[in-house]
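Table 4 source record.
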Amino acid sequence: MPLQTVEPQRLYRQIAEQLRSLIVAGEFAAGSRLPAERDLAKQLGVSRPSVREALIALEVEGWVEVRTGSGVYVLDRSGAGRNTGAKVPAGEWGPLELIRARRVVEGEIAALAAQHGKRRDADAMARAIDGMRADADRGVMPLDGDRAFHTAIVQACGNVVLTETVQGFWDARRGPLFERLGGYFETVPSWRSAIAEHEAIHAAIRARDADAARAAMHEHLDKSHSRFSASWRRAKKSDS
């Protein structure tokens, strides 16, 4: 047999594969509830965010169903022609891991923007926040304004590598894992909180306070991580 290309596996995919194998082996029967995230994390020796990413991947692929306020249940895949869900691309980044990476990179980007940005950059950030607020007022998730805001910050640095890096973060945000997770935890109230956090970042950059800009970006992404890591009991009802 010829050797096959070896690809590094993301941690959440390794966790998902273990759980999938246990489901196939009958350790978790169809209709049964999986152990709580806390218990799975302890048994696997990993973080709860990594377990959450794995559960979302299994849901996207049709192995489990998240029932908000109740838990995560194994789906019956024995019926012929049953929809088994979509395949998560092998290169898909875990949403919570992505937010942590953004914290590291975009914190320094905000500091640089405060040091080197021009008035036109601060004006672009303000327009993006206005657009976010208008969308939230209409009950629309303000993703376009959010992307425009973070893009305006990185463009203030004048570094094409950083700009393309942040654009890569945003392209990843449109993947099936992030979209499914957002379907549970992104709401108009949560976006209003995010808008207030953006305003704090903007104020620090406009004041040319690099330390405050870095801290405000860190706080924003820490809170974003917390919103997506909240108890399933706090998740909104989802039709997905």
